[in-house]
Write a structure and sequence with these properties.
- This protein has a domain of 106 residues: FAD/NAD(P)-binding domain (3-Layer(bba) Sandwich), CATH 3.50.50.
- 26% of the residues lie in helices and 22% in strands.
- The protein is elongated and about 60 Å long.
- The termini are far apart.
- The protein binds flavin-adenine dinucleotide (FAD).
- The site of flavin-adenine dinucleotide has 24 residues, from helix 1.
């Protein structure tokens, strides 16, 4: 498939939160040409925060995570192409090549490709990644697989003691798994929280002229 009307096409690479919002926003703001959104996942744009919380615990379904229904994109005349990766961008020709080999021309290009879980730098990581009980956690499908293996009494090792790792640990403990969290830094949440200080260093006494005040640092 090659889009003929490339002169009039806004192409969004990625179909995450940013892409989903952008697709309808540019229509609302008056873009009259084509809007095409290409995502490598099979899903409509969805919220990731509940993945490690309500979705992992089974309290919400995949559909409940979708930002908007397909009909909303259709109404905004957004063409959504799922399961497809943009492999190459030719900026001179203003054209992208898709994983299925097709090409799409564009006049405006939005890169909304988001982030990925960092790949572990371990020897023979390719073989480890093929194991049935090894998972990265970034997408809805990753969490659906992890959820299927959450059996009470199982042992779970989480690599990474940031928000996502600890949220998963909390859900797993509630489900009766035995959880170990491995963190490379000296403490969990080290990148996002300040260290706690012993009580004696947390308070200081300032003495203004008339009275004394205690200040929590
Ligand atoms: C488990 C989890 C919990 C989180 N919890 C919180 C939270 O509580 N609070 C908070 O503020 N943030 C949270 N975040 C972070 C938040 O979800 C991200 O900031 C947000 O997803 C970023 O949205 P995005 O659209 O920029 O990118 P992404 O959500 O990463 O979406 C990008 C999309 O583009 C696709 N893509 C990439 N390359 C290509 C390509 N070449 N071709 C086609 N498609 C491509 C990807 O497959 C993906 O679907 C969490 C993230 C995770 C994973």
């Amino acid at each position: 498939m090659t889009v003929v009307d490339a002169e009039n096409t806004a192409l969004i690479v990625g179909a995450g939160h940013a892409a989903g919002e952008c697709a309808t926003a540019i229509r609302e703001q008056g873009w009259t040409g084509r809007i095409v959104m290409v995502g490598e996942e099979p899903h409509l744009p969805y919220q990731r925060p509940p993945l490690s919380k309500a979705f992992l615990s089974g309290e919400s379904t995949a559909e409940q995570l979708y930002l908007k229904q397909l009909s909303t994109y259709e109404k905004a005349r957004v063409k959504f192409i799922p399961n497809t990766r943009v492999e190459r961008i030719d900026r001179c020709a203003k054209r992208v090549t898709l994983s299925k080999g097709d090409e799409i021309g564009y006049s405006k290009l939005v890169l909304a490709t988001g982030g990925r879980a960092r790949r572990l730098a371990l020897p023979d990581i390719e073989s480890i990644e093929k194991l049935q009980n090894f998972h990265y956690l970034r997408t809805l499908d990753h969490v659906a697989q992890i959820r299927n293996q959450f059996h009470p009494g199982s042992r779970l090792v989480i690599i990474g003691g940031g928000y996502v790792g600890l949220e998963v640990a909390a859900v797993a403990v509630k489900r009766g798994l035995h959880v170990t969290v491995l963190e490379a830094l000296p403490r969990v949440l080290a990148r996002v929280t300040a260290p706690s200080f012993p009580r004696s260093t947390r308070t200081c006494t300032a003495k203004p002229a008339s009275t004394s005040a205690r200040m929590l640092l």
